Amino acid sequence: MLERPDWDHYFMQIASVVATRSTCLRRQVGALLVLNKRILSTGYNGTPSGLSHCRDVGCLREDLKVPSGERHELCRGLHAEQNAIIQAAIHGVAIRDSVLYCTHYPCAVCAKMLVNAGIRSVVLEGNYPDDLAKEFFSEAGIGVTFIV
To answer: Is 3 annotated as catalytic?
Structure first.
């Protein structure tokens, strides 16, 4: 019989499946917002609805050889965390005090959005080269946990 995963691993497995919807050529990221062990919203990184996918038109950041974690404004896509927040807003779902489960560490822009959205903690699987995001979470008192 398979071992039953704890809640953190369960939600991270779901975030990994959500990431498979990504059309990003560089990295597939999935995110969940969870409150009281209930999924409120999901998101993956990709272009806004109705715009051409990076897989179809290419990646300007890749063409310009922009390093990971830099020049986010050149990307045509939204981050998974942003899409999870947007989906909750579209459907009128309150996310204050929820937990973010994400396959990668959020960037500084996403960290600021998560702080303002009232996210209370973040559970992550992978890292990301953005020390400013770490500072924002620390200053805001948002706990960050890595799971394996």
So the answer is: no
Report the distance separating Cα 8 and Cα 123, nearest Å: 7
What lies within 8 Å, CB to CB, of 49 at 6+ separation is none
43 - beta bridge partners?
31
Nearest to 122 by CA among 139, 105, 140: 105
pLDDT at 70 over 90: no
Sheet holding 30-35, edge to edge: 38-44, 30-35, 99-104, 121-126, 143-146
Catalytic residue among 3, 62, 81, 125: 81
d(CA 84, CA 90): 10
CA–CA gap between residue 42 and residue 45 (Å, rounded): 11
> Is pLDDT above 80 for 147?
yes
Q: What does the mean pLDDT of the chain come to? A: 94
> 69 or 25: which carries more pLDDT confidence?
25
| Token pair in block for residue 102 | 């994400």
